[in-house]
Backbone:
């Protein structure tokens, strides 16, 4: 069935928006439950059966809270920051394919598009750190800035390796070119990408920018109500985007048995596994120190990513 | 006017306005944030002109990395808070240099292409890749050598200062 172009675009936008509003909540709920069970707790149990509506209840709570703008804050910078942090992930989600047909915006260089758009989200954190007019926020914002710049490089290099192996910058093309032995061939790049992604999301063990014992909650200290909820949503949306991106780049996306019909299901399953791995890191590891964090990026990840790039180059020349 | 023309004018106006605000703003950090809008708008201009790869690289490198570093440095030195007031001589010279560069670039464009309309067709990403790593590979590598030299020099400057400090102690 052929739909008129405008109807198709509106439908796709609605679907992407719906996914953007539900998937992060699902990740948040999974985090509550996975973390609780790994620690021998039950987690949220009151809201809905087995606490399944806990995040909806949290959302209602956040809406009711007063939205405070501190007197010392840089008013507009402070208020715009949550939106700047959140919207890039929404745009990125639209360009990630779930299967060869299930992609909202199939741009030619979608890999570069997703990386470029998500790199804008850091301004939300920087603006929050600066605009709050609070020294803990400023220190947290600076840590976040340093961290994101350092980990951007190994991440782009690892992604470039896959693009080189596939010979295309299109995410759809990369997933179609994927075959099982890439799991071994691209393994160093995959590890680098995963570590860099966790660092970009400022998740444990790389959560020095929001370390509660040192800088309260870093750039987000002064936020309450909806602004705070937006930053939380941005973090979970970031996990969704990074998990999907990792799935498409390194795990073959929708490839699997009966991928013609079950493609999106495979993508969702694999991405869920990656997301749970990212959540698991938070429970299993302590926080790394700021200098250890920088050292890891520049002394370990960048060289490994460069070696992976060379390995891919040799592979492409020999087998391609 | 086609819809593309309208889009180009809109994006161009946003870029120009953000650039003017970035230059005239007295608070350095706000100027940096307006620079983000200006560079993002420039990426939009490239996109409208059909140069997808250039637009994305502009976003990834300039917005996502260079301006982040600028803002980071501003936060580190705490110079973002105060208002900056330049002398009027300074402003006049800067204005003259800016106007001169504008006239020079505009003149070059008009001299090269005249006032006639041109068909806009950006090259494909493959073509750009082949040009950079084929025809223009030597200038490209020379540029990376220059950047590497700058990096090494920066590290040298930073570490010699450090040693002097330790000696004083």
Residues:
């Amino acid at each position: 069935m052929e739909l008129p172009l405008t109807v198709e675009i509106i439908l796709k936008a609605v679907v992407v928006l719906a996914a953007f509003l539900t998937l992060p909540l699902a990740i948040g709920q999974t985090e509550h439950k996975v973390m609780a069970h790994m620690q021998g707790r039950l987690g949220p149990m009151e809201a809905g059966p087995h606490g399944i509506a806990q995040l909806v209840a949290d959302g209602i709570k956040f809406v009711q809270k007063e939205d405070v703008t501190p007197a010392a804050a840089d008013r507009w910078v402070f208020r715009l920051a949550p939106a700047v942090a959140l919207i890039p992930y929404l745009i990125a989600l639209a360009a990630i394919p779930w299967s060869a047909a299930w992609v909202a915006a199939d741009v030619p260089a979608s890999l570069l598009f997703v990386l470029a758009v998500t790199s804008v989200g850091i301004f939300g954190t920087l603006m929050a750190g600066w605009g709050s007019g609070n020294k803990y926020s400023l220190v947290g914002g600076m840590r976040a800035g340093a961290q994101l710049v350092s980990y951007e490089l190994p991440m782009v290099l690892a992604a470039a390796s896959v693009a080189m192996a596939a010979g295309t910058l299109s995410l759809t093309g990369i997933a179609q070119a994927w075959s099982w032995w890439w799991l071994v061939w691209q393994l160093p790049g995959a590890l680098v990408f995963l570590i860099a992604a966790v660092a970009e999301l400022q998740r444990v063990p790389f959560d020095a920018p929001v370390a509660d014992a040192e800088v309260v909650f870093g750039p987000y200290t002064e936020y309450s109500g909806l602004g705070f909820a937006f930053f939380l949503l941005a973090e979970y949306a970031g996990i969704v985007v990074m998990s999907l991106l990792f799935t498409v780049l390194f795990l073959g996306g929708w490839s699997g048995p009966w991928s013609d019909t079950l493609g999106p299901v495979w993508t969702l399953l694999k991405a869920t596994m990656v997301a749970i791995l990212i959540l698991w890191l938070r429970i299993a590891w302590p926080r790394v120190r700021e200098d250890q964090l920088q050292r890891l990026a520049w002394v370990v990840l960048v060289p490994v990513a460069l070696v992976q790039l060379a390995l891919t180059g040799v592979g492409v020349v020999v087998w391609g | 006017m086609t819809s593309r023309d309208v889009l180009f004018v809109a994006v161009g106006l946003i870029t120009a306005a953000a650039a003017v605000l970035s230059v005239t703003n007295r608070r350095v950090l706000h100027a940096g944030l307006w620079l983000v809008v200006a560079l993002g708008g420039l990426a939009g201009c490239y996109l409208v002109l059909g140069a997808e790869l250039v637009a994305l690289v502009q976003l990834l490198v300039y917005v996502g990395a260079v301006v982040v570093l600028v803002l980071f440095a501003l936060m580190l030195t705490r110079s973002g808070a105060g208002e900056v007031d330049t002398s009027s001589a300074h402003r006049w010279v800067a204005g003259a240099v800016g106007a001169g560069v504008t006239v020079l670039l505009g003149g070059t464009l008009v001299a090269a292409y005249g006032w006639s309309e041109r068909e806009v067709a950006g090259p494909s990403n493959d073509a750009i890749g082949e040009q950079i790593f084929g025809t223009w590979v030597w200038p490209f590598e020379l540029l990376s050598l220059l950047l590497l030299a700058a990096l090494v020099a920066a590290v040298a400057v930073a570490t010699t200062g450090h040693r002097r400090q330790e000696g004083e102690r």
